[in-house]
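Researcher: Let's continue the batch. This sequence belongs to Signal transduction protein, and it's 676 residues. Same format as the previous ones, please.
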Amino acid sequence: MILRPAFVSLRWKILVPLAFLVIVINVLLYGYINQQLLHQHEATRSESHAANLKALNGSLTTSYHKLLEVAQTITALTQTSGSDQNQYVQIVFDYDFAQLEAQGVLDSAVLFSPKGELIMTWGVVHSSFDTIVEKAIAQEYPVRDLICREQCSHYIAIPLLSNGSVSGVLVVGRVIQGTVLDFKQLTGVDIGIAKKIKESEPAVTNWPLLFTQMTQKNQNIQLLNLLSQTEPKFVLDTLYSVRAFGHSYDVFFTVPSSIQSDETVWVLIADKTQNVDRLQKVQFKYKAGMIVASTILILIIGMLVECVVKRLRFILKQAPSRSLIHPQNVLAKSAFSDEIDKIRQLCMVRNEERVSLSNQELQVIPPSKASVSAQVYEKDTVANLMGNANSIVLTQCLNGRVLTMNELAKQLFGELKDRPEHIFSDHFLVGSHNRTALDGINKLYIGRENLVCFEARCTDIKGETCHLYWIHTNMESNVDHPVILSIGIDITSNKKAEERLAWLAFHDPVTEVANKHLFLQLLPEMMASNLENGSSLAVMCCEVKKSTDSHLLMDPADGNVTLFSVVSERVSSCLRGDDLVARFSDDLFMIVLNNIKTKGNAGSVAEKLITAFEEPFFINGCYFKVSINIGISTFPNQSSDVAGLVQSAEMSMYLSKEEGINNFEYSVEEASLAQH
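Model: Same format as before. Here are the structure tokens for Signal transduction protein:
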């Protein structure tokens, strides 16, 4: 007994895998986009914290400089007083300390003897200054420090020098509370300063830190306590994220580079709720978009599969049902069958009916007259091609060996027949520029293509370059191996014409130098290169004029052509290899002097050109006098754009014409600089 497989419609066999594939692709795509969004978010966080650190260092440096300025002013006054410096410092602070303290310039001042003994104090002093005083006496140079007790203060110790020796040390200090508040107002970031402790109870659980100063201290201490529960040990210069009080915060522990102390830790707390919410909104939009796109694609695939299934069911309805229920035609290899399996059963039935026919009834149909005529026509066509004098025609084997050639191929490339060492690709497809053509002919050799066409470049027996358009196809042959017919059409003249047109687009046909289009294309590149290298360039506008007698002696038909070609050669001979000369119009040339050191270099070249044009031009047995006027503009001093440079050089040229022929002028802004 043969069991019939269960029927499962083709729509489910196709729709389910395709729907799964669509979902997987969309999930992977969403994962990639989400990863890019996270990278962008992290980059923004890093840039923001870098800016905050820069602002913090700037604020601390400014605070130090204010203290240093006050202390240096007082010490400068003591040096000019001529009396005892220590006594003079006491007098100054006795009278002015209250005013300086009221202005917020400093909070405390201490005066020490050259041996480090305390002489006098002003204000409230909570620290010992033995270390910085000893350094100031030893180095004879101001020493700064940050000391934290109940509050953190900046201190600067300045040695008082008299007759080349230290007569005392002045220490001035200022509580940095104002600096902290200024930083908060500037960046909107909360800041705290903690002192490293060992014995007393810390303000933050698990961290040996005592915060002496902090903006919004109560809230931020709670925030740090939450962070310490997940991070038992904090790491300097590491960015942490904390979610608390319905907001997202970035916490960063650091020691500013402007602080010369390792006893304190600075913490920056920034509210990044808006950035995080914006990221979550973008992620939600992409997620919703992916879901909608997946749903639409699955619906479209379902509609297409339904159309295919309906077509297959229509085919099954046209077939006789008796063919499908024969026990021998049941496919039991699969547990499930579908519309395709039923069509395969139908095909098997039809094949059995064909095989059951008697072999005697099968008749061998002889070749018709039409096929014989087609073979004769193909043979005549090949014979005509072999005699064609306008194209290269040859035949070759599948291994590339050339069998036959027409007369034109023999004239251009010599006789290659019966030379096994001369393969078609070795002679006609040599060089990396023919790699695409070589790939195409190899596909024909291995049978992947029946017809290939490509352009190739080769060299004939005279050493001249030929451009050929090849057509290769398989052809029937009486020999025991396949033959390939190859036809090469000579397109050398077309290629040369294209190259000439491309050259004329950027060159002057008379003088063979660059034209205006190429000049305006190369000048911005040369300006960028000189700006990167820190050098300069000069643009020279040159107008050449023939004398009145020259017009009378020259043939208008070709005299100008000959003269200007010689003029361009004389101009080029006065320039360097990396300079640029271009012809803008009949008698106007533009020159770019690349990579010059001073403005005087351009003037030297202009004088060289004027000297060269003082010598007459000898053309067609006659001498001609030609004058030149030059205007000079420089980059980047004169102008920073192409139009400005060209316009300044042209205006300077017109100014030189007012002084007479064979003169040059700098632009108005550069004239005074060039004279030096």
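Researcher: Any comment?
Model: Residues 260 and 408 are 89 Å apart (CA to CA).
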